C-alpha cells in the first residue's frame, strides 16, 4: 500500500526463497496470538528483577562489558551531532522463536548477508554490531557493505570493505557492541543497503532480532566479494548481530529523530516479507514524500511486554527503553505502543506470565514516560488496537484494553496521543479490526492496516 518509488530495488522479494518465507510466516501469526512464543522461556523476568545485579560470572562479564562499551561510546560521541539514526532494530537473546532461525546454532565458516533500508540520507555511514546476548567473544573476520540489488545480490561495483579501528577484523567481547569506522558513502533516504559479515570461527548462539519481516542470506565459506548473490542459498526471516546504522548528515545538530517503540505491531509482524510495510517504514515514506526526510527508527519486538520480559520476547519495555531508545542519537520524539501482550498473555491457564492489572500497565507506561522526559524527549502514547477474535482474546482482556486506552487518552501523562484504536476499529464492531486492516489473525494489521496507522499520525506534531 505504500509508495515504493523511492529507491526500492527492482524485483526484491520476488524470488522463490522469499515467497516460501512469506508463506511460512503468515500462518504463524495465529500461533503468536495464542501465546506460542511464551512456552519457550523457563520463566518470566519481572520488571523489578530484570535490572538486578548479575549473579553468574558470565552475567558479570556481560554487565561489565556493557558498562565499558557505554562509557567508550559516550566518549566517542562528543561529535554525536554529526550522526543520526538511519536504521535500527531491537536485539534479543538467541531462541527458537516462532519460525526457523539461525540464532541458537550460530555461524561457522559462513558468510551472512543482510538487507536493511535507511530512513534518512547523508554522506557517510557506520554500522553497529552487537554481541549483547552472546556466550563467547564474537570474531568477525571481515565485513562489507554495498547497494542492494535483487535478493542477496549487490549492485555491481558498489561493494565496499568495512573496518574497525582501521582493521579488517574485530573481536567483540561477551555483552559488547562495536561500531565500524565511518565510511564515506552517499546514501539516499529510503535506500537499501546490503551488509555482509564473514564469520570464520564458531560464534556460539547469536544475538539477533527474531521477526525481521525481511530476508537474510547465508552461504558456506567467505563470499564477501560475491556481488551476484548466487552462493547465498539459505534464507532466514531474522536479523543477526546488526543492530544500528547511523548516517552522517549535512543537517547535523538537528535533533528531530523519531523512535517507534513497542511490540509486534510496531515490529511489523505479518506484513509482507521484504515489502518495508511496517508502520515506521510508512511513516518514513511520508516524510520523504513531503521533501523532509527524518530519522525514523523501529524498536519493536514481537511478543514484547511492557511489564515483563522473557528470553523469547526480550527484556520488558521498561527495562529496555534506555538501551533501545535513549541510546539513539538526535532523537526528538518516541511513540509508545505497548501493552496488548501483557493483557493477552498474562494469567492465561498453563501460562508462565502472571496476571497483569491495569494499574501495573499504567505504572509501566508512567515509568517509560519519566525516562523519556528525563532525557528531554517528547513522548506520544498510542492506544492499543482492537484484538477481538485473536487467539488470546477474552472479555476480561478487552475490559483491560478499554481501561488502558481511556487512561492514555485522558490522563495527559503523554505529551500527545495517537488514537490507533479508533483508526483500525471496525465501525460495526469496534472491538475488532476492520477486515481490510486485519492480517487474518485478528491481532496484527495487514499491509493496509500498517499504512493506515502511519497516515493517522500528525507528522507536524512529531
Automatic annotation (TrEMBL):
Residues 58-81 have a biased composition (Basic and acidic residues). Residues 260-451 form the SGNH hydrolase-type esterase domain. Residues 48-83 are annotated as: Disordered. It comes from the Bacteria. InterPro entries: GDSL_Rv0518-like, SGNH_hydro, SGNH_hydro_sf. PANTHER family: GDSL-LIKE LIPASE/ACYLHYDROLASE, PUTATIVE (AFU_ORTHOLOGUE AFUA_2G00820)-RELATED, GDSL-LIKE LIPASE_ACYLHYDROLASE, PUTATIVE (AFU_ORTHOLOGUE AFUA_2G00820)-RELATED. This is Lysophospholipase L1-like esterase. It comes from Streptomyces zagrosensis.
